[in-house]
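example protein:
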Amino acid sequence: NNSLALSLRNVSISVLFPPAISPEVMDQTENEGDTASYICRATGQPAPTISWYFIGAPVNIANAMKYTISVMSFNSTTVSSTLNILSVGSSDVGTYTCNATNV
């Protein structure tokens, strides 16, 4: 009596890729007292985490009177982050950078 046994196992494969930032962030000019908003959209696997920097230093999100940051996930690989700078003034002039990581 010859009988064969069959064993199956399902496996899944994930392809990892580094983050890429969509070119949506642009220079802006605002009137003093206005709110400036910057959007950063990034794609990666796993989905990236977006951080904001002002002149090379992390944006101080603890200062809720000055900054708000919101994050939206579109799917398992794409996220968007919006940085709002409230009541802009001369101390807010400079370069804001979004950084996407997925390590």
Notes: The chain has a mean pLDDT of 90. The CA atoms of residues 55 and 95 lie 5 Å apart.
